[in-house]
Amino acid sequence: MIRCTDVIKTYPGGFEALRHINLHLDKGELAFLTGPSGAGKSTLLKLLAAMENATWGKVIIDGQDLSGIRTRHIPALRRKIGFVFQNPRLLNDRSVYENVALPLLIAGQRPQDIGSRVRAALDTVGLLSKEKALPQTLSSGEQQRVGIARAVVTRPPVLLADEPTGNLDPALSREIMNMFIQLIQMGTTALIASHDHDLVQDLKRRVITLRDGGIVEDRRA
User: Fold this and answer.
1) Which residues are CB-contacts of 1 (< 8 A; sequence separation ≥ 6)?
2) What is the pLDDT of residues 28-46, one digit of tens each?
3) Contacts for 38-41: CB closer than 8 Å, 24+ residues apart
4) Using only C-alpha atoms, what is the Rg of the chain?
5) Separation between Cα atoms, residue 119 and residue 129, nearest integer Å
6) pLDDT tens track for 93-151
7) How would you classify the pairing of strands 30-34 and 56-61?
């Protein structure tokens, strides 16, 4: 489902952000991506989401090779990928429902299908009763859950998350991580970047550690 083969990412000036990344995640697998700041976690997620291109090597998502992918094909690819940011980037002038519905509208889903999909996603994250609320009336944990609902409402086969619990207290962090574990039980493949070493260890899942742009450990539970 996710495969990187000898992936290198070099930025102008010669800085090598990623070096010789070899990685494979099967369908329905969840793995955590750890490492110090600057290790390359966010860069790797951006390559997987086709936000940036690899300098060398192959990046394959759901059987599609991203090498040289044409711009016009990127929107279709991204419909296969849910992305959760540390800051959920919600639209504050739109309701919770409208925020979650946005990817479906962009994808051209039939209006009669959108309501049931949005409410199913909100029910998954425990926020069905908040569908009419504005984001600024929610707690930080609730806002992050709205971000997760928006990421999964299209039912993507791949879910990527970049420090999704970075702004949350330990209890909320564990709640969010457990939510990801529930989502993969429906067949989603997930790669989650996190600096919360203790929480990641407690969850007893595969842990991929980056340092200086390279994988230094790939430990399975």
Assistant:
1) 25, 26, 27, 29, 61, 62, 157, 158, 189
2) 999 999 999 999 999 999 9
3) 39/210, 39/211, 39/212, 39/213, 40/9, 40/210, 40/212, 40/213, 40/214, 41/162, 41/163, 41/193, 41/210
4) 17
5) 10
6) 999 999 999 999 988 888 889 999 999 999 988 899 999 999 999 998 899 999 999 99
7) unpaired
SS3 131: coil
Instruction: Report CA-CA distances (Å) from 131 to 47, 86, 128, 154.
Output: 33, 21, 6, 17
Q: Which residues pair with 184 in a beta bridge?
A: none
Q: 217: which DSSP letter?
A: E
Distance (Å, whole) CA 47 – CA 75: 15
Q: Where are the beta strands (DSSP E) in 30-114?
A: 30-34, 56-61, 64-65, 81-84
104 close to 97: Cβ distance less than 8 angstroms:
no
Pairing of strands 30-34, 189-193: parallel
Closest CA to 152 of 185, 175, 130: 185
How far is residue 215 from each of residues 18, 30, 59, 168, 184, measured CA to CA in Å?
A: 9, 17, 15, 27, 24
